[in-house]
Write a sequence for this structure.
């Protein structure tokens, strides 16, 4: 089925990119800010004398948010394929706001006991459900606004929005870290950071209401059902999960785990992890759209391959460098180097995973492979990394997890044909 985007002029397309990107950044900000304050949240909501146990529970709660992603991918993805991309994105934003509200108002474990971590987990489950449907709907809508020679560039703005949310979260963390004491951060500062994301949700909803639709609602269940997806596109589903696996593990190890590792294990100051996140986000904001444009010219598979091979080769020596030096400067250098290749990979890999599915199952297919890849391999990467160090006694063990999943992800590239420049199905 032809999309509606072909009838819109360039001005409308630019406005749509801005609208989707801003809304996406606001939605992912609520998800990203948890990582910024993960260690602090662990001390407030998870009892126990062992720092290791607290950290594991904190990362487990972070990972729980990914358990509901596949469910959100199926429910919201099917809704987007049947009724349009815009109403699906409207729904995901409202659900994300609800999950964040639970974080803002939930008292600590010391105040209400076991109900506190239960409510925090509930908030994460709701957020995960929302994010599960967001990526497929928003990326699909961006791509359907593009012509065959610019889909990589258009689709990359979804990842730009995610990077923007990381930068906003890091910036808020830096400002609050400068202005507030540790006691104030623990008392109300981290809640204020989440409240900021909640307060701008109405603005994001307003933006999304004005977006022109790219796929007319037809509501035909037989055209966009799970049966059609699983029976017709098993190879694409497997390839998409494998491709997602390598990227998501790399992202969570470098952009999330390294920051918390620096604080909890290397005992670097809280500000060091925030600066690292800020630096990584800055690199991605610059390179993600460029990488999308590059993939339009030379192909998605080439860009993804030559971004992932350096990640596989560099992660272990750089991780060892961080562990041995335990300095802020080394942490920042390592994150800078790795972030370059993460940025080159991000946009083209997601666009590739969307292009391998036809229009009537595209939002569902992309949402599902992304959510499964993240849930199975990325969401619990921080917990797995922490457990590997405890199990092996090797502080560099998390790098091996990234190496193994990175190598396996290259198999996914072999299962699909090049999609750049080809008409969308």
């Amino acid at each position: 089925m032809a999309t509606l985007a072909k009838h819109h002029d360039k001005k409308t397309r630019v406005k749509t990119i801005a609208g989707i990107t801003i809304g996406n950044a606001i939605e992912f900000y609520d998800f990203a800010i948890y990582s910024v304050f993960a260690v602090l949240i662990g001390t407030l909501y998870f009892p126990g004398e062992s720092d290791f146990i607290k950290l594991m529970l904190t990362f487990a709660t972070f990972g729980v948010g990914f358990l509901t992603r596949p469910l959100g991918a199926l429910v919201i993805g099917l809704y987007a394929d049947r009724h349009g991309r815009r109403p699906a994105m409207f729904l995901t934003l409202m659900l994300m706001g609800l999950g964040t509200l639970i974080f803002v108002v939930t008292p600590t474990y010391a105040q209400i006991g076991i109900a506190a971590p239960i409510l925090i987990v509930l908030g994460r489950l709701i957020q995960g459900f929302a994010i599960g449907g967001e990526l497929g709907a928003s990326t699909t809508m961006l791509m359907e606004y593009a012509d065959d020679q610019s889909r990589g560039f258009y689709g990359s703005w979804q990842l730009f929005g995610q990077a923007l949310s990381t930068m906003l979260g890091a910036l808020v963390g830096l400002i609050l870290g400068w202005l507030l004491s540790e006691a104030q951060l623990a008392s109300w500062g981290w809640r204020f950071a989440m409240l900021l994301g909640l307060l701008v949700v109405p603005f994001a909803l307003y933006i999304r209401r004005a977006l022109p639709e790219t796929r007319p609602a037809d509501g035909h269940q037989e055209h966009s059902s799970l049966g059609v997806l699983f029976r017709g596109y098993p190879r694409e589903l497997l390839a998409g999960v494998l491709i997602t696996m390598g990227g998501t593990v790399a992202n969570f190890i470098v952009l999330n785990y390294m920051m918390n590792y620096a604080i909890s294990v290397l005992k670097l100051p809280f500000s060091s992890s925030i600066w690292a996140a800020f630096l990584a986000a800055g690199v991605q904001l610059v390179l993600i759209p460029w990488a999308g444009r590059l993939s339009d010219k030379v192909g998605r598979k080439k860009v993804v391959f030559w971004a992932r091979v350096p990640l596989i080769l560099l992660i272990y020596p750089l991780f060892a460098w961080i562990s041995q030096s335990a300095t802020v400067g080394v942490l920042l250098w390592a994150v800078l180097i790795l972030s370059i290749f993460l940025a080159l990979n991000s946009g083209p890999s997601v666009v590739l995973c969307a292009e391998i599915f036809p229009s009537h199952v595209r939002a569902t297919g992309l949402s599902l492979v992304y959510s499964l890849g993240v849930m199975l391999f990325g969401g619990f990467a921080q917990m797995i990394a922490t457990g590997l160090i405890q199990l092996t006694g090797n502080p560099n063990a998390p790098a091996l997890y990234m190496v193994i999943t990175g190598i396996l992800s290259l198999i996914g590239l072999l299962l699909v044909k090049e999609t750049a420049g080809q008409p969308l199905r």
Notes: The CA atoms of residues 29 and 165 lie 4 Å apart. The mean pLDDT is 83. The chain has one domain: 9-209+233-414.
